[in-house]
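Annual report, structural modelling task.

Input specification for the S-adenosylmethionine complex:
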Amino acid sequence: MAALHDKFGRSITDLRISITDRCNYKCVYCRTGNEGALYGDLPFSAYLRMARVLVGMGITKVRLTGGEPLLRNGVVEFVRELSQLRPPGANHNLDIALTTNGHLLADLVRPLKDAGLTRVTVSMDAVDPDRFTRITRVPSGFDHVLAGIRAARDAGLGPVKVNCVLLRGFNEDQIIPFGLFAREENVVVRFIEFMPLEEDRVWSKSTVVTLEEILARMAEYRPLIEIPRARSETARRYRFDDGIGEIGIIAPVSHPFCGHCSRIRITSDGKIRTCLFSIWDHDLHAQMRRGVSDDELAEFIRGVVEKKEERHHIGEPDFVPASRTMVHIGG
Ligand code: SAM
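The model returned the following structure:
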């Protein structure tokens, strides 16, 4: 099968699959705190078939996400089955990553690694335990998450990435403590600019802590030196001037990287989304329910990917909010 490209010539190599719409955290910048899951999920066999067809079309990286993916029973077995898929012509395995809030990670790290997981990203928006609780609205989560990060690092699922979304007036005072955390815990801390993808619609340009501000704030502790990166990498990468500790900054608002976006997503209920900011999605699972063949499924996917959006329009007057918020897409 020919590799997947959109009409702007971008090749699509990364797939994110949300395996559940449920989440055990209620992060204030993400969820209202009143809504639970809004969408159902599918048997793992359905996600596996979608992934198999897509790997045959050039997908080389699969990231499991949610909701909170570790809430889903059977995730270890699913990783084992995914790890049997081989990109055509490649003599290496599929790259299988996980994005998690880390709450349930410590006990699952070993089985996940043994099943074939290659990388873990843990979301953590404060290194101060009280602040962490105020953000997640779940008591005593911090110790669980820290244990999960350490277990992942010690199991060799590294370099473990710790993603922190910054929200002005809320946690930008955590920037320097996170710099220390990266150095002390030997993890890559990545700051992410807040995007208008929250349930509560509190986003405005002024809530975004930008790349330049992060660099300036960190320089009050120690300067960061940029590391060359591959064009396809979404994060700009930095090292502290003494070579100890890596920091990443993902700046979709102040420095959009849509021009080299290589991603598509499948939601927990089996819809393809070609952009986080898509205003519609495409029902892949409905095609499967109709009994189509793998070739017909591939044709459907090709038609959808062809129409991938050129770019997001965050902050522009013509911005139309996405049809789903981040937790219901799979970040
Ligand atoms: N539960 C998993 C977790 O916590 O990583 C996976 C789902 S969560 C929605 C994925 C990521 O999206 C998290 O790192 C979260 O901080 C991030 N996120 C949620 N809302 C966001 C927003 N409006 N802008 C930027 N990132 C956001």
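The mean pLDDT is 96.
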